[in-house]
Amino acid sequence: MVHLDQVLSRLFYKFRLPVALLCLVGAGFIASSFYQKSIPSPKKPESMAVDNVLQWKVVADNLYYVKERKELYLYVDLKASKAQKKSDRTPLNLSLVLDRSGSMNGDKIKYAREACKFVVDNLEPSDNLSIVVYDDQVDVLTASAPVKDKATLKKLIDNVHDRGSTNLSGGMLEGYAQVHKTQQRNYVNRVLLLSDGLANQGITDEKVLQQLARQKNNEDNMTLSAFGVGADFNELLMTNLAEYGSGNYYFIDSPDKIPSIFAKELHGLLSVVAQNTLLRIKFPSQNLSVNKMFGYQGQVKGDELVFDLKDVFSEEQKAILIKFTVTEPLTEDAIFTSTLTYDDAVTFQRVNASENTRLKVTTDKALFDRSFDKDVLQNIVLFETNERLENAMLEVDHGNFEGAKKMIITLKSEMEVQMKNLPENADLSRQYNTVMEYEKQVENAKTMSSEELKYNQKASRSSNYQIRKKK
């Protein structure tokens, strides 16, 4: 029987232990290392239907711990119910921040105007909206206010024309300022940032821009979704702005897709089921340290991990994988206490639930070896593969096509072994197809034009982002 640290280090980091994985699968996975808790909405009048708002589970990769363990995983899966039909939805407090730089000429600015007007048409007087446009200068077309005179708003949008360079930071900060003016707790407070270029005016340092998005999110409770258009924007920056801003990232490869992508974002915003969602996981910090987080980034505060998940939308799924390093061997059972709190978007009442997950110390290695949870193993493979594919994309960015090709070939062959020995899984299949598609792109990278290569990089990163976000 193969020992655990061989399994984890070689299976999940180098993916080179098919025999061990086959042993694990053959022995059967014990899925008793998790709890699943459905949190009911607070009691409502009998005339109202009672439904579960959020379903969640916290899953250890193994129910047991043996002293040879050097690392372990915890997997969190949160799923929202379908939004109930109701006369009053959660109101929105939005700022549309639109790039009007010279590169937005032609179809880009045309379809961006169309998308903005679509947003206006779908808002109500209870919603607040501001519209900010930017090139090297930043202008507020309309300050944040209730949406009442839609015709006037759409006329203002029709008068937006391309010009100048790209002061992305100025537009973003003004968008936040407008949202802040009319910010309320039970509203969805979000900036929608659209750009087709690189930040070349105002604040251009990526780390500073990302920190601004994080600060506005964590301290001021304002979120941001980023829309990148065409081949010339910085997709790493736009993705990170959305990540740090607790919003969504979209790659728009063709201008005519701008309205439909905005419609997708707006559909989510109009179907909020939970707000101010906070997940806390208390772990034995005297024995474990947080090595890495996948899916969503949390903050480590002493012996607690805090994930500020903000708004959760109808039927949305959020997945988090936490990798711990064992700093001091466990001598007694370990307890992970998880607490989930949120505001029910229907009743506006605060909901709170918590559970304990126990990791049992054992000397029975045979018991340990047959007690892995298959769902967690699948997600470890998924998130580790996703990250390794991102690393290969960085090599292509740097012009190291041969290095990227070797990484992809190795990744693909190792993933094929894992998929043969793991139960069929739609997410893993989707990730594998993304790896396969990217392998073809890398093979042809040398013969691509600069424009084509940039488009392909953005499309591949967008696909990889969608997978790790379970979208």
UniProtKB/TrEMBL annotation:
Protein keywords: Membrane, Transmembrane, Transmembrane helix
Keyword Membrane: yes
InterPro entries, A to Z: CLCR (IPR051266), VWF_A (IPR002035), vWFA_dom_sf (IPR036465)
A UniProt-annotated Pfam family: VWA
Biased composition (Polar residues): 457-471
Sequence intervals crossing the membrane: 15-35
Entry annotated with the keyword Membrane: yes
Domain VWFA intervals: 93-266
Spans annotated as Disordered: 448-471
Name of this chain's protein: VWA domain-containing protein
